[in-house]
Known about the structure:
Elements: E1 7-10, E2 14-15, H1 33-43, H2 46-56, E3 65-69, E4 75-79, H3 81-91, E5 107-113, H4 116-131, H5 137-149, H6 154-158, H7 164-189, H8 200-205, E6 215-217, E7 226-228, H9 231-247, H10 253-259, E8 290-297, E9 303-310, H11 331-342, H12 349-370, E10 372-374, E11 377-378, H13 386-389, H14 402-412, H15 416-424, H16 428-435, H17 443-460, H18 464-469
Parallel strand pairs: 2-4, 3-5
Antiparallel strand pairs: 1-5, 3-4, 6-7, 8-9, 10-11
Amino acid sequence: MKVRDTVKVDIIKLKLDVENPRFAELYDGSDNQDDLIEYLLNSESATAIVKELNDSQEYYADRPLWVIKQDDGSYLVKDGNRRLSAVLALRSPTKFGLSEPRQTIDELPVIVYDTEDEVNKRVRLEHIQSSFRGWDRIAKALEVYKMRSSGASVDSLKELDSEPNQLTKLASFYYAAVAVGKDDLKVLLRKGRGNTGGKTIVFERLFTHRTRCGYDFSGKAGGYEVIITDQALFDSYIKAMVELLKANPDITHKTADSEKETFLDRLKPYGFTPSKKPSSGKGSTPAKTTTETNPTVTGDGSTQATPANTPPSPRKSIKTSPKYIRKGIPRAVDDLVKEGFNLDAVFFTNSKVAMSRVIFEAVLKYVIENTEYAQGKKLNGSNYFRDAYFNKHGNKLPVTNFDKLKDLFSALILDTGKKKAFADFDLERPHQIIHNYNVTAVPKDATAICDNLMPLVEFLLQEEQELLSGLDKNKL
């Protein structure tokens, strides 16, 4: 058993980590160190550390940074980014709008780790549990989501927070919402100077009205993934919320609580009209009462789930796998499609992404090798597809060149929208997941890839003559 010593490193060799899990998803600046320092001061409470250093007039040796040595001789800080940013800011306080006097520290104590996996394990096992309570709610949610996606159990996540499912729900919503609201939304969600940020809880309070805003949650045990039921409505909702909160920074969760569903009327001037409330008309089945969890504010500004009995809105039917009518599909192909689409995106993220390529290749190859475009002649019998099966010397390839097969088939499609969808479907990302252990995915990746794959499979596995009517057979 080795004892890892603390060593001192010149401060100019220490680099802030833009990929730090605490703030990477919320940060929207550059890799420039000054930009990162500015962000950490304003949005991650590093100013409190500045004050602490100024008051104590020393940096305590028992607070070493955890770092990884880089090939260029620098050290990437994996834990302690706020401490380093505070020290760096004190070297030029006026540059960062600080009132503290200039302080210079030339070296800082560090513990050097050999690999990123090694230090990440240490951070997660020994450090996050104690520091996690100080994280903003959105940062907590994103970290729990990543841990859950990596296979962490619900029980282990409960050691960090008593309601990990609520954090998973929030993070899932975040990924969908930021895809629409982008950096403007990130600024609103993270805390900053003044009252321009920290609006996460406003969005959470409005989860109650989600079905009127184009989204819902799966609610499956261990899942709690956001489901976009109306993409146009959801996009309009997020964009309107961003504009409303930018124009009215004083809006808080209390505003949403007091106004309840009428809060949505505030969004109409910004182009959002909520869908009508579902009604239980004559002959309809009354909605069942269920227990919905709504967050309540605690003394430290965080939230905890409290039950509120509210009737749920009817959930729209969400298609999660392709529907196809082609006859004679082999059992192996059919099972493969069902298996891939049924994989849970949270617990089997990499597998679901990898399976997307397997499904695409298997279905495409089956269709090309079993579809007759002329009397008794199948698609793969045409010289048009020859380059996907044979090399330039005329020898049969040991394995089919699927990149070539995909390109050739895409070029046959007459409908420009479908042609572009086939051409744009990325085979490289799933390939890297399968073959490169350094590449991983997040549940959002898996869900998006399968959503894009679904119409392609449906197109390929439609009735044979319908498929052929959508192809340019003159090229065959």
